[in-house]
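Regression check, magnesium ion case 315:
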Amino acid sequence: MVDVVHVVVVDPSRLVLKAVSRMLTQRDHRVHAFVDGREALEHIKLNQDAEVLITSTEPVSISGVELCWETRLLASYRRPIHIILMSSNDSEAHLIQALDCGADDCIGKPPAAQELYARLRGAERLASMQRELTRLAEVDSLTGLLNRRAFFARAQDICARSIAAGAMSAVMLDVDHFKRINDDYGHDVGDEALRALARTVAGTRAVVGRLGGEELAILLEGSDLAAAVELAERLRENVAALRLKTEKGPLSFTCSFGVSEWLQDDTIDRLLKRADLALYEAKHGGRNRVVAAEAGIPLDGAAAGSAVIRAFARQ
Ligand code: GH3
Ligand code: MG
Ligand code: MG
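Current build output:
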């Protein structure tokens, strides 16, 4: 069975639109039909779940080939869009032009229902493979969190939005004396501790990445420093309360946290750097604690270590 697909259909003829839409809704696909190509393009821009475009060569306000091209520019590895050009003109030159301008496939107009379904099944096979490859490229296999590269890519997207929207904070955390867990309980138990930590942190519903070994980062859109510190403190308590069953008896562990807030004209690198410096202070101050970075403190040189205004030590 093919999953329900959000299909955008474009043709100047309402009769054709009606016929194609009927074919698609009979297979439970969600269909949005347009006579105007630019309106269709706007719809695809605004609706990230629009996965398939079926367009004729001559919609209103934009040529079909142009629409293929513009739509192709909206697609990315994270947003596959399958484009089918619908044409009664099947000259070789015409097909080549359409494919060169971003179409993935061509079909006659009006399409035969069974052929259309078969082509959509092919599109779905490709899309699901792309989704799986994207997941494998973005997700850390041990913890299920975003890997470093995907975390930074997501962070860049969020930063672009947050510059306009306002508050954003970052939390960096690192397991305390993790090496000892590996040494005393074995690497498998160390892995289990990382999974338990990831489950605890993933519950925050923020963007969470595994930046390296036992170091995670959290981006909190819409949270100021005080809210981020509060969340970090809650996480610190929740992690410290975990009890892992091991052959050598229950294991508990702690994490240290550094928190920073987005400043005017900030960058993701600087935001995380400040959180990292605060994390360093948390380690230095005795571990199992949350430290917040003060706004505006220079990052370079010896003064960096003073970028800390509050330390929450509750041992
Ligand atoms: P600190 O409190 O200063 O952070 O001490 P630490 O022992 O946690 O820090 P250190 O950086 O010395 O050790 C981190 C250890 O994490 C070393 C490495 O072997 C281990 N590690 C990194 N990735 C993994 C992993 O995927 N699984 C396991 N089990 N261990 C890992
Ligand atoms: Mg550590
Ligand atoms: Mg570390």
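Comparison notes: Confidence is low (pLDDT under 50) at residues 296-315. The two ends are 56 Å apart (CA to CA). No diff flagged against the previous build.
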